[in-house]
Automatic annotation (TrEMBL):
Pfam families: VIT, VWA_3
Biological classification of the source: Eukaryota, Metazoa, Chordata, Craniata, Vertebrata
Coiled-coil regions, chain positions: 330-357
Keywords for this protein: Coiled coil
Domain spans labelled VIT: 6-136
Entry protein name: VIT domain-containing protein
Residue ranges occupied by any VWFA domain in the UniProt entry: 277-453
UniProt-listed InterPro entries: VIT, VWF_A, vWFA_dom_sf
SMART domains documented for this protein: VIT (SM00609), VWA (SM00327)
UniProt xrefs under PROSITE patterns: VIT (PS51468), VWFA (PS50234)
PANTHER family assigned: VON WILLEBRAND FACTOR A DOMAIN-CONTAINING PROTEIN 5A
């Protein structure tokens, strides 16, 4: 397994042309305030006459932190442990070559929202169940709903040598149950899929459960919208650490998660609403064909109609090449708006591949308009494989260009969409249909019209005997109405006072602003460690960004150490589990069979590796042409 896996592959075939039969997916979600713990169980069967090694490539939200991996075969369970990635690969190879069953789970090197699961040498007719657990922050919508999305589709990401064949859908069912616990009452839960009734578990309506209707075919993303009463109010959760963890470590001490929603002075915000240069970058690649390009056009048209008079704008379309409506940004008038809208209505998904770097570099190289801060709006499904390179470019220009993104269609890359917005000090929206479109568009435009917040600082105040280690990277963006989650490690013991305070200072249009929140230092009884793991994820992501810029091995070592300590995934570690039962060494080579890149969407991408004798290999050469 030392060779890299082609993530563009879609579908898993046996030598009979059959797909590996994934039978079912069971998902259990436990929501705690603004975060969730998600447990997924994948069940499948090897219906081959030969041992099969399958590699599933599947999506997780970019905001997720994988924290558990286990596999059960023939009533025997093996639990994965986090190891440095190269060490984990060597352990996996050694196990397979000696006839043992092994599982390897690792993050893609190019896109952090894609994971590859190597399920080892599965005997003929054998069944297996793989359990994955991850924690995630829930994103806030324009109407204050919290959005949870379970991605069903991993679109094949564009690469320059992409060759397409028709895609296939993998037939399996999904069961989904959700339990919600909140410090404030739960109002309702909505979904794009059919749900059973919402059942409250207490009279205060702070606990509830809901399930997906039976028989759901996992052919689209499952989106849940959770509504709380007084959702804009700040909240705090203090979570106890592990008693057997290393003293003084992140996992041993309590961790606090604060949810803040800053309020800006109205007169300051209104004074900036007529300034700005708006650059719209539209994905016209082939993968946007059909409903995606229609949704993108509808979104862009709504934005064009809503721009303030006196601003400037331009529109770029991109695919394998790019072109702009105007040679340079023009003033927004009735005439220029109508001319642009006519061109937008004619935009089609006819520009081949998704190469976004070239137009981005061109836009970043343009001269600025005085007193008109540049705002970049990107519309794409995110089917690229150079995500990290794109994010590095956006980060480099983040002080002069704010970036707002719209993920178009089912399976849009969360790593690219949310990553560009985060690095570009903007916000991300996901458009999967016309429902709630206007609300999402107007929220992004409202944020873009707000002045940039600068000089952001956070001050923690705790009683004598305690201290605070800030875990959240320094905030570089704030918008009115947008929630910010802050994590901090609490060390030491309180002298008796059980209250702490966090103060948020920032400057808005040269006006100093202060927001403050007091919180209880007593840890909650729930020791699920979701807060700790999300805090560890925040630190790991910051260190990974530092390592990409500095190439410092000591930073990489810090990532590995924290990843192993917290039991969460990173770009430098992997989950490895080896079944210790008796096994016979594999005879003959491990023969790898890959499937051509698919067009359109697929549920799981995969490749197949068979344990064969040399003569069997010759008999099965026809498999490569499937």
């Amino acid at each position: 397994m030392q060779s890299s896996i082609n993530m563009n592959i879609c579908g898993l075939l046996t030598e009979k042309g059959q797909e590996v039969p994934l039978k079912s997916v069971e998902v259990d979600v436990k929501v705690k305030g603004h975060i969730a713990t998600v447990t997924s169980v994948l069940r499948y069967v090897n219906e081959e006459k030969l041992p099969v090694e399958a590699v599933f490539v599947f999506p997780l939200p970019a905001e997720a932190s994988l924290c558990h991996f286990s596999a059960k075969i023939a009533n025997e369970e093996v639990v994965g442990e986090v190891q440095e990635k190269q060490k984990a690969r060597e352990m996996y190879d050694d196990a397979i070559s000696s006839g043992k069953r092994a599982f390897l789970l690792e993050e893609s090197g190019e896109s952090p929202d894609v994971f590859q699961l190597c399920v080892g040498s599965l005997p003929p007719k054998e069944s297996a169940a793989v359990t994955l657990i991850y924690v995630i922050e829930l994103t806030a919508e324009a109407d204050h709903a919290l959005r949870f999305c379970l991605p069903a589709v991993l679109n094949p990401r564009y690469g320059p040598t992409n060759i397409g064949v028709p895609s296939r859908l993998v037939p399996y069912t999904l069961s989904l149950s959700v339990v919600i616990t909140s410090p404030i009452p739960i109002s309702k839960v909505e979904s794009n899929c059919s749900l059973g009734p919402l059942t409250y578990l207490n009279t205060a309506h702070t606990q509830a459960k809901v399930s997906l209707s039976p028989g759901h075919k996992f052919d689209r993303d499952v989106e849940l919208l959770l509504y709380y009463q007084d959702a804009h109010q700040p909240t705090a959760i203090v979570e106890a650490g592990l008693k057997n963890a290393k003293p003084g470590s992140l996992m041993a001490d309590p961790v606090v998660m604060l949810s803040l929603c800053p309020e800006f002075p109205a007169e300051v915000v209104s004074s900036c609403r007529k300034r700005g240069e708006f650059i719209f970058l539209m994905d016209q690649s082939g993968s946007m064909a059909g409903s995606s390009i229609r949704s993108a056009r509808e979104t862009l048209l709504l934005l064009l109609k809503s721009l303030p008079l006196g601003c400037y704008f331009n529109i770029f379309g991109f695919g394998s090449f790019f072109q702009s409506f105007f040679t340079e940004s023009v003033e927004y008038t009735q005439e220029t708006m109508e001319k642009a809208m006519e061109k937008v209505e004619a935009m089609e998904a006819n520009m081949q591949g998704t190469e976004i770097l070239k137009p981005l570099k061109h836009i970043y190289g343009q001269a600025y308009l005085p007193n008109h801060p540049r705002q970049l709006f990107v519309f794409t499904d995110g089917e690229v494989w150079n995500t990290k390179e794109i994010l590095d470019l956006v980060r480099t220009h983040s002080l002069s260009h704010r970036c707002f993104t719209f993920g178009i269609g089912k399976g849009a890359s969360t790593a690219l969409i949310t990553g560009m917005a985060k690095e570009g000090r903007g916000t991300a929206q996901f458009i999967t249909g016309s429902d709630r479109l206007q609300l999402k568009v107007m929220q992004s435009l409202s944020f873009a019209l707000q002045p940039s917040v600068v000089d952001i600082s956070v001050k923690w105040t705790v009683p004598d005997g305690m201290s605070v280690i800030t875990l959240t990277p320094p905030l570089n963006v704030l918008f009115q109405g947008q929630r910010a989650l802050l994590y901090a490690q609490l060390t030491g013991q309180s002298s008796g006072n059980n209250e702490g305070t966090v103060t948020l200072h920032y400057s808005l249009a040269e006006n100093p602003v202060t927001n403050q929140l007091s919180f209880c230092l007593k840890p909650s009884e729930d020791t699920g460690l979701a807060v700790h793991r999300l805090a560890a994820r925040a630190v790991i992501q910051s260190l990974e960004k530092e390592e990409r810029q500095s190439k410092d091995d000591s930073v990489r070592e810090k990532v590995v150490e924290l990843s192993v300590q917290a039991g969460v995934s990173s770009s430098f570690t992997a989950f490895i589990s080896v079944h210790k039962g008796s096994g016979q060494p594999v005879k003959g080579p491990l023969v790898k069979r890959t499937v051509p890149v698919a067009q359109g969407s697929c549920t799981f991408s995969s490749m197949i590796i068979l344990c064969l004798e040399d003569e069997d290999y010759l008999n099965l050469l026809g498999l490569a042409s499937l």
